[in-house]
Every structure is written in C-alpha cells, then in structure tokens.
Design goal:
Oligomer: single chain
Number of helices: 6
Number of strands: 5
Shape: globular
Helix content: 25-40%
Structural class: alpha/beta
Radius of gyration: 14 Å
Distance between the termini: 28 Å
Order of helices and strands: HEEHHEHEEHH
Strand order of the largest sheet: 1-3-2-4-5
Largest sheet: 5 strands, mixed
Length: 136
C-alpha cells in the first residue's frame, strides 16, 4: 500500500516519474476524488498488448500526470487483485476510471495516450477543474 500512498499526492503531478502501481498493492477506494485510475490488465507481463500499452502511457506520462492519472497494472490472473475482482477483465484490458470511482471506458486493445487524455478532458469533473483553474 505504500506505493499507492506515494502515488496520491498534492505535489505537482509533473514532478512524478512514471511508476505504475501493482494491482496487488492498490486499493481503488484510495484514489476516489484524488486520482483517475488507468488500470491495465493482462494475463502476463510479456503480453505484447500490455507491453505496447505501457509504452504508450509512458510516452505521454507528463500530460497524463497533469490530469491526476495513476496507472495500476495487474498481470497476475492466478492471484486476483481487488482491482481484478472488481473490474473483471478478460485477457488484455485497459480500464479508465473517473475521480468518483466509476468506470468510464474499457478497451480490449492498447489505446494511445492522446486518446486517453481526450476522453479525460471530456469528463464533467475534468471540465470543472479546467474552468476553476484547479488543475491544468
């Protein structure tokens, strides 16, 4: 849980480096109203879709971090994490969640960071953040 706690921060998001949290260490409830979880599931860390998704997320990390994104990974279907039990993925899956803890989008294939940011920027909470100047 320490890794999850480190990811929840009031510090500027740009300062954080890309450091996904293992699903076994993440409690999705800890991120409510603080972060937007992007949960990436696969049946193995060697899954080509998983490898590609992590590359795409890392390439856009400063912009994603500015939107309060936290990346959670789970590549251990044999020992299901709480996130896996709650979100019930099959094979590779990317799940974008809102700050209020709801599932916004599920994708069965890797998704570009630009598309993830576009989806986040359409969320009502994100629009309010932009209007109020509380988040870039």
């Amino acid at each position: 849980m320490a890794a999850a706690q480190d990811a929840i921060s009031d510090a500027p998001a740009e300062a954080a480096e890309f450091a996904p949290i293992a699903g076994s260490e993440a409690d999705l409830n800890e991120f409510i109203w603080k972060n937007r979880p992007v949960v990436v599931f696969a049946d193995s860390p060697a899954d080509p879709a998983f490898v590609e998704q992590m590359r795409l997320l890392q390439a856009r990390w400063p912009e994603l971090a500015a939107r309060d994104v936290v990346v959670i990974t789970d590549t251990e279907p044999g020992t299901p994490s709480p996130a896996r039990l709650k979100l019930r993925p099959r094979g590779f899956s990317l799940v974008l969640m809102t700050k209020d803890g709801q599932v916004s989008i599920r994708k069965p294939m890797p998704w570009d960071g630009r598309e993830i940011m576009r989806a986040i920027d359409k969320m009502p909470i994100r629009r309010e953040e932009i209007r109020n100047g509380t988040n870039r």
